[in-house]
Automatic annotation (TrEMBL):
Protein name from the UniProt record: TonB-dependent receptor
Organism: Seongchinamella unica
InterPro entries named among the record's database cross-references: Beta-barrel_TonB, Beta-barrel_TonB_sf, Plug_dom, Plug_dom_sf, TonB-dep_rcpt-like
Family affiliation: Belongs to the TonB-dependent receptor family. Hemoglobin/haptoglobin binding protein subfamily.
BP terms from Gene Ontology: siderophore transmembrane transport
Taxonomic placement: Bacteria, Pseudomonadati, Pseudomonadota, Gammaproteobacteria, Cellvibrionales
Domain (TonB-dependent receptor plug): residue spans on this chain: 41-140
The keyword Nucleotide-binding belongs to this UniProt entry's keyword annotation: no
Subcellular location: Cell outer membrane
Amino acid sequence: MLALPSASHANTALEEEILVTATRIPQNAAALPLSWADIDDGALALTGHVHINEAMQRLAGAWISRGNGQESLTALRSPVLTGAGGCGSFFMALDGISLRSPGFCNVNQLFDANTEQAGAIEVINGPATALYGGGALHGVINVLSARPANEHSLAVEAGPNDYYRGKYLYGRSNDKHGVSLRFNGTTDGGYKDSSGYDQQKLSVRYDYQGQQWDISSALNYSNLNQETAGFIQGYKAYEDQDLKQDNPNPEAYRDAWSLLAYSRASRQLNSRHTLVITPYGRNNEMEFLMHFLPWQPVEKNGHSSLGLQTALYSDLGHWSWINGVEGEYTDGWLKEVQAQEFSPNQPAGVHYDYQVDATMAAAFSQATWKHNRLEATAGLRWEYNHYDYDNRTGDGPACDPTATACRFYRPRGREDSFTNLSANIGGSFAYTDNHIAYLRYADGFRAPQVSELYRLQSGQQVADLDSEELRNLEIGLRGTLAATLDYDVAVFQMEKDEVIFQDANRQNVSGARTRHQGVELSIDYRLADNWYLNGVASFARHRYDSRINLIGSSGDIEGNDIDTAPRRFGSARLGWEFKADSVAELEWVYLGRYYLEPDNEHEYDGHSLLNLRISSQLSPHWQGNLRLTNLLDEDYAERADFGFGNYRYFVGQPLGAYLEFVYSRGDG
């Protein structure tokens, strides 16, 4: 049966709002003094996203910038962060377990998760609670696996450019056992020439409730084989009908697979204390052509991890307390090889070939006090990261000794360690039964990524980097008006220190500062019994707060906007439930203008798009879904930047129609 969407929680009491991500167990979330939001399974089903950015547009402060195929870059209460360590500023997880190991992030890592068939996606904006460490700097994106239920469905879907997708769902559940299997496979011919992808994702979950232990085990597998289309160049080239479908890099590709599995066991020790133990493992590999570089090397990377999370949850009347320790070991590697000679400074052959043994250990404590209309919380986290780096090729430059400015430098084997401490404190007050105000301070950190430390350039022999640190202060209001309007608004001020960047000499250094200020707003309004309106908006400025010799800049950029940081963006949806289990939803997506480089001399104008989705239960077992994307056939860029002296764009697709039929049974 069709599940109607819910962007927030209109027509429900505040005390019924549930969040998993803050503490890794379901909890009452309305009074939490932090900024959070979710996309439930009904909204995910109606959105039917082909790319994760289509779903994340439903959340305030979140913009997943879409590349070609399944590639992406993330902004979450931040600019779109790029480079070797940009992805390290976000904690992206499956059921609270990071998709990638600390130190080994990838900007595209959200394609590892089966978001298409998730139970929900929960997001925390800004530094999270003490349960999350390095990476939870600008926020958390947590994909929740779906609980087993008695259900069985098969869906087939077709769209433009030879797009086809199939989904299968099987579930059974009783008082003690539950199993859920979800699979989807996609083939896409690609809008641009010589592009497209094949992708498969599998999620399996098994739940068991025993007399002493409750155990939930899950496995997530993904595989992607993509023929990548590169960006087109030239001012507003995305409006040129002769260039829009052009692919300057028909040879580009990306192959990636990942596996993440865990088993979470919980036991109630007595009436006040519950122990939760979660062992997990992950493995992933990726190979791709670096088409965005003129010399086009091939990178291969991967890592395997084993980890353990433990936590003791204590309910002490007015107090609740979470204490835990975590540990993880990772074996990671990277190799970069160039097939053809480009120049003496970018030679053919092996540029990098290294292996890193990484260890993470952490301890945390988070306490909450509740009394009548007040709730206060405070947390502290200590985390230690250690890297043991082994260079598996020659030390020093990758070029012939006669090269005057070799691009690639391989440092000799070494070890690096980083110790960080983060804290958060906040409080909320329910000044009426339906309205809550909160105030929160939190700081976050991220240790340098492995590639920032050991993938060096231009003769840099050692990258002497510090962990990035961020301080966040926010005030928020949330509540319900007249039982028809839910609202959530947050005002934030963030300062980030020791920002890692590449300077004009192409060397990795830390020490920059940035500043981030803004307002995030979400509303969900029930216009009538069968009409709803919901929307999200972000108004923010993200600026450089120091004079730094950043690559691609004049050096005088203090106070400038960070590139790819629109000051305004958001979306709104008008929905009509035209009969039982049937809905039509018109969506407006707005992205404001933004600068393309640190000097703020080139910009993208922004765009507005309309999308239409219709979902209807055709019979007791059959459901039909129609999605029309870019309804007005606008010319726009999914992403824009300026590099090597040119405007560069990933082109947005024209009007597209996707039709899906779903056969389902509720008896498993």
